[in-house]
Every structure is written in C-alpha cells, then in structure tokens.
UniProtKB/TrEMBL annotation:
Identification of the protein by name: Potassium voltage-gated channel subfamily E member 1
Keyword list, A-Z: Cell membrane, Glycoprotein, Ion channel, Ion transport, Membrane, Phosphoprotein, Potassium, Potassium channel, Potassium transport, Transmembrane, Transmembrane helix, Transport, Voltage-gated channel
GO biological process: potassium ion export across plasma membrane; regulation of heart rate by cardiac conduction; regulation of ventricular cardiac muscle cell membrane repolarization
One GO term describing the cellular component: apical plasma membrane
Domain of life: Eukaryota
Keyword Glycoprotein listed: yes
Spans traversing the lipid bilayer: 42-61
Membrane-related topology note: Single-pass type I membrane protein
Family matches, as InterPro entries: K_chnl_KCNE, KCNE1
Length: 126
C-alpha cells in the first residue's frame, strides 16, 4: 500500500498519473511535456466543479426531503391550497369598506363658508 507523506508526493503522483494518461491517449502524436502547474490547474477546476456539484445535489435532496415531510392535512398547506379563504377575506374587506362608508360624515364650519355679502379684509402693505 502506498503511503503519501506530504503534498509534494501527492502532487508528483498525480502529475505522473496525468502524464501517463496523456501519453497513452496521444500515442500517435509526439508527447509534449507540460509544466506541473498547468496540470494542477485542470485538477483544481475539476475539484471545484465536483464540490459545486456535491453542494447542489445536497441542496436538492434536502429540498425534496422537506417537501415529502409536508403533510397534506397540515392546516397551513390546506389554507394555501384552497381559495375559499381568499373569498372570505375579500367579503370581509368589502363589508368593512361599506361600514366605513356609512360611518363617514362631513362637518361644515359655518364660519369658513363663503359669504358673498361679507368682504374679507386685506392687509395693506406700506
């Protein structure tokens, strides 16, 4: 069994595996020697894509599991699923509007009403 002591051994192992794979795929073409950093960039991108995929699948599974746990007899879901509550709310709002309209009244200030026979004094500027 192969035991790796540090990151350099792991990097060299991965680089050698990648180089061997590239040589096998491009056996007809002359093998090109690449720098280890360019090969590590590919591994880094693949690692990031793998982590993103793992995170996305986890979120999807959590969401699916949460939706399955919702019970159809739950009052909250029943309230949202039926439209009867919206109709009752609309009827209540209309009744309140009519009630407020009936309670509405206008007060008239007799002193503020225009009186054509009385002239309003104006301030004289000097």
């Amino acid at each position: 069994m192969l035991v790796l002591s540090n990151d350099t051994a792991l990097n060299s192992l991965l680089f050698k595996l990648l180089q061997d794979y590239l040589e096998q795929t491009n056996s007809s073409a002359p093998s090109q020697v690449r720098s280890p950093s360019s090969n590590l960039e590919i591994i880094y991108v693949l690692l990031m894509l793998g982590l993103f995929g793992f995170f996305t699948v986890g979120v999807m599974l959590t969401n699916i599991r949460a939706r399955r746990l919702e019970d159809s007899c739950d009052p909250y879901n029943t309230y949202i699923a039926t439209d009867i509550w919206h109709k009752k709310d609309r009827e209540y709002f209309q009744a309140k509007l009519i009630e407020n309209y009936k309670l509405c009244c206008v007060f008239e200030n007799q002193l503020a009403v225009e009186q054509p026979s009385v002239q309003i004094p104006e301030a004289k500027s000097s």
